[in-house]
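Justification of resources, computational component.

The compute hours requested in this renewal are based largely on the per-chain cost of generating structure records like the one below. Each record pairs the submitted sequence with a full structure-token output. That output is archived, and it is also reused by downstream analysis tasks.
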Amino acid sequence: MNILWITNIPLPPLSRSMGWNKLPVGGWMYSSLQNLRQVPDFNMAIATIYSGKEFIVKDIDHVRYYLLPLSGRSKFNYNPNLEEYWQKLANEFKPDIVHIHGSEFPHGLAYVNAVGSNGVVVSIQGMISGIARYYDGGIDYRNIKKCLTFRDFIRHNGLRYGRAEFEHRGNLERELISKVCHVIGRTAWDKAHTWAINSKAKYYYCGESLRESFYRHVWKYENCVPHTIFVSQAGYALKGFHKLLEAFPLILRHYSDAKVIVAGSDPTKAPWWRLTGYGKYLKTLIKRHDLYDHIEFVGMLHEEQMCQAYLKANVFVCSSSIENSPNSLGEAQLLGMPHVASYVGGIPEIVNGNPDVLYRFDEIEMLAKKVCQLFAIGKDYKAPEYDRNRYNWEKNRSDLVAIYNNIKTSEKQ
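The structure output for this chain reads:
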């Protein structure tokens, strides 16, 4: 069976072959590919977009990789020039199944418009049409207006303009989902949003196989730095880092040595011409609450570095204004470490509705209290039960193979 994956980012073997820096995201997808390659008679190809001008084909370790050129156009806007390349690819590879990983970018829609929806299945990742309404992370308009920066104004994104961009991309996502007959999801939240767009599409559940490192380690209190919080990203408002900053003074009342470790670059330290409105807002909060000595941005971390950052922290916090099923939370669960998460989107399902973990997004008092409770438990912490099958490699491979076979059979009828 010829399986074509359409991805939003290049996978590591292709990045290495092209001499590009390996992206510290999407590792779960490469793990899933490695898992799926164990299936006999599966011929795999991976296609993605890039900023160049040439259509590139590379065979690496028995997988064919395609790079489709954007030729200077934005990946966020529909690019009709991609249709010719998709037709060329389909005529050459002749896929039985086309698996579009994520609906957030319109190059998958270009495939469907060029080749058709026969054998196509879309995996829901973030569901951007459902996310757009939460883009500003609950920050009031007065602060959004006050924090407008030169970069936001020139590029028409950031806190003030970013929601409009998400809504535009959400419209393209709706068009894609409305044109396909098969969708893969992971939560009741993404299932409801899929149904609202295309109630005739067949919905399949398949869990997420996460990055390999997180299956090989176990969090232990004696190996962590007490009273530290780890946050996997803080680059834009819907991830809710500002809410953790608002809650942090309450945490400091009880644990004056508390500290937050944040993966990714520091958005507050960008030069004035690159400073985003959200970076400016975070800078305001850090200054207002005098948190300079309690916040550390550790830069972009690759898989093993990321895993070690989790293991060294006392508590993982997911303070997003919306999520479907965040891989970061899943990785904390796999490691068995203390975690707190906002009651939004698909998160309640991910944590089995555990009230010890969940808090309402805008209730900073509840966030602070739950973090302090986990600090107090210390070495007596026992990880809560969750559905381990959600991240089970063998089961997820078996489920995905069954989905592909079901789609292929249904297309023949």
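The chain has a mean pLDDT of 94. The chain has 16 helices and 14 strands.
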